[in-house]
Amino acid sequence: MNPGPRGPKPRILARLDDGPKVAPGAGFEPARPLRGNGSLAAAQTPCHLEPAALGRSATPAPDSSIGFAGFYPMEASVTVWRSAGDLVSREGFASALRALLDRGFRFTIIGGTVVELELGSKDLGDDVDLFGEEPSPLFEEEYRAVAEELGWSIGQTWLGTPQLIARVGQEEIPIEFYENIHDFYVPSEMLERAIRIDVAGVRVKAVRLEDHIALKAHAGRSSDMERLKEIGRLAKRGKIRVDRKALEEAVSFFGDEAKVVARRLREAGLL
């Protein structure tokens, strides 16, 4: 995507012996195009794409060299590029999240995976965006501990929160954790009414499709608007169903900003 002055790309960090130090890049990658099967996943993109839920969009992200709330950047970083064949499978997705659930982690899916699951896509995009509930993403130690236990890598998102690179068979699955800090905002009402879904035998929580759509409209960058228009086209073709009442409720969760969110949804043909 290309939202303008949003801050540095999310970084995939590795163990200190995995490669040379690389400075983070600026900006984000372009919005992911519609694939032939109706999926919104990318044909070829780096795995440091945007979280799809993204809070207040106009303010630059914090300097990635500055830690906060006990979370500090690690010393080495490498950028990992993933091709079309590296999209996250349902089985890999389920296995990685099961490992976290078994270790007491609690979270809600907030990103583009919500749309892919609604579409019934075989592949679920190129990363997984979660709203971390327990433990808090602001405390990196527990995330580092589980990464070491499972043989995964740990890094940071653009927000400075943990990113785990899960290894499941031959797959490497970027899992990004977010919380309401700085410009990132998911209304509590959305988390409270999250639904439970079954993915390859694993029960996980996810925000409703309508809430995901409202989050994209709240972010309001050009790439977000393009994604919303794609979702609108899918809805018109009957690929997915958007509940208008639920979407209007989602808009209301943004209080004083609800009018702006509603206008953007009308522009995208979703209200």
Structural account:
- A hairpin with a 5-residue loop joins β5 and β6.
- The longest helix has 15 residues, at 222-236.
- Mean pLDDT is 77; it is low at 1-84.
- This protein is of the alpha+beta class and 271 residues long.
- The strands form three sheets. Strands 3-4-7-6-5 form a five-stranded mixed β-sheet, with helices on one face.
- α5 crosses α7 (244-252) and α5 (209-219) crosses α8.
- It contains eight helices and nine strands.
- It has one domain.
- The protein starts with 44 loop residues before the first strand and ends with a helix.
List the helices and strands and how they pair.
Blueprint (H helix, E strand, L loop, with lengths): L44 E2 L34 E2 L7 H13 L3 E4 L3 H7 L8 E7 L5 H11 L2 E4 L5 E7 L2 E8 L9 H5 L2 E5 L2 E5 L2 H11 L2 H15 L7 H9 L5 H10 L4
Parallel strand pairs: 4-7
Antiparallel strand pairs: 1-2, 3-4, 5-6, 6-7, 8-9
Could you give the order of strands across the largest sheet?
3-4-7-6-5
Number of helices: 8
Please identify the structural class as seen in this structure: alpha+beta
- Total domain modules: 1
Tell the overall outline: globular
User: What is the subunit arrangement here?
Assistant: single chain
Any idea what the radius of gyration is? 17 Å
Helix content bin: 25-40%
Strand content: 15-25%
Main sheet overview:
5 strands, mixed
